[in-house]
Amino acid sequence: MKRAVFPGSFDPFTIGHYSIVQRGLGMFDEIIIGIGTNQSKKTLFTVEKRIDMIKQAFVNEPRVVVMAYNSLTIDFANSVDAHFVLRGLRSVGDFEYERTIADTNRILSGIETVILFTEAAYAHISSTVARDLMSYGKDISGFLPPNVKI
Ligand code: ADP
Q1: In angstroms, how far is CA 48 from the centroid of its own chain?
Q2: Domain for residue 45, yes or no?
Q3: In terms of Cα–Cα distance, which of 125, 91, 98, 95 is closest to 19?
Q4: In this predicted model, what pLDDT tens digit does every residue of 6-59 receive, in sequence order?
Q5: H-type alpha helices, 1-91
Q6: Among 50, 110, 115, 127, which is 20 to 30 Å from 9 by CA?
Q7: Close Cβ partners of 9 (under 8 Å, ≥ 6 residues apart)
């Protein structure tokens, strides 16, 4: 059983995140979407709301599970018996950060990180921009996975 954790803030979960998970399902038997809640940063959506939106996106996909956690990602991955971390990479801007975290996680725990380059059509999609647009009353349905309502 190849199980991966896809960790993130998912504030909100976007169509870019959705695409990474869909593609990850071609490599892993099960993907646990882990909503990290230990950051001191304030979020727009509650954990419950974020879980609800992710469940809507994967209502027909039993191989995707969503959980919240408030520990280190590697400790969470160990607790659910996942040997891989899945991440997405949009740009060189993401690269250094992802490499640092991936190397640290591997050195500390042996957990390997699998990074997928985003589909070009979703490279501009970010939770931060979605939140900014929402704060000005704009419709962000184009940023969300199919069948997901806020
Ligand atoms: P974090 O706060 O850990 O960066 P995010 O929720 O912002 O969490 O993102 C989780 C993962 O999804 C990260 O690997 C991020 O690079 C990736 N990601 C974010 N937006 C996209 C996108 N549009 N396409 C592909 N991957 C993305």
Answers
A1: 15
A2: yes
A3: 125
A4: 999 999 999 999 999 999 999 999 999 999 997 677 999 999 999 999 999 999
A5: 15-24, 47-57, 73-79
A6: 110
A7: 35, 36, 39, 41, 43, 127
State pTM to two decimals: 0.96
Q: Is 41 a catalytic residue?
A: yes
Residue 126 annotated to the active site: no
Inside any domain, residue 65: yes
Q: d(Cα 120, Cα 68) in Å, to the nearest integer? A: 29
For residue 66, the domain's CATH number is: 3.40.50.620
Q: Is residue 149 part of a domain?
A: no
Is the distance from the beta carbon of residue 126 to the nearest atom of ligand 1 less than 6 Å? yes
Q: Which domain holds residue 81?
A: 3-143
* pLDDT tens per residue, range 73-98: 999 999 999 999 999 999 999 999 99
As for how many domains the chain has, the answer is: 1
**Residue 118 near ligand 1, beta carbon < 6 Å:** yes
As a whole number, mean pLDDT of residues 94-118 equals 97
Residue 35 DSSP symbol:
E
Residue 80 falls within a domain, yes or no? yes
